[in-house]
Design a protein that fits this description.
There is one protein chain. This protein is α+β, with helices and mostly antiparallel strands. It has a single domain (10-88), classed as Coenzyme PQQ synthesis protein D (PqqD) (Arc Repressor Mutant, subunit A, Orthogonal Bundle). It is 38% helix and 17% strand. Helix 2 crosses helix 3.
């Protein structure tokens, strides 16, 4: 599959959604079951709204977590979203 670039606009694939907030744990509900989200996983997935570009998502996360280096945020977001895309959970438009 192709590399994710800063210009892509990610969104959840049809049939995928986040569980309601306030539950015991953060889950990404997918047709085959559920994926447990750890750390900033929920925040990243919430920003994949089909409107924000990958660059805008990284910028937003840097605003939320200013003590983290932008390069580290970008690397981790790219890795996380690539894994979701490879599982068919994420579409890049």
């Amino acid at each position: 599959m192709s590399e994710l670039t800063p210009e892509i606009v990610p969104r959840l694939a049809p049939g995928c959604r986040l569980n309601a907030t306030g539950g015991a744990e953060d889950l990404l509900l997918i047709p085959e079951g559920a994926l447990r989200l750890k750390g900033p996983g929920r925040a990243i997935v919430e920003l994949c709204d089909g409107v924000r570009s990958l660059r805008a998502i990284v910028d937003e996360l840097h605003q939320r977590f200013p003590s983290e280096e932008v390069v580290r945020i970008e690397t981790e977001v790219l890795s996380f979203l690539t894994r979701l895309r490879d599982r068919g959970v994420l579409e890049a438009i």
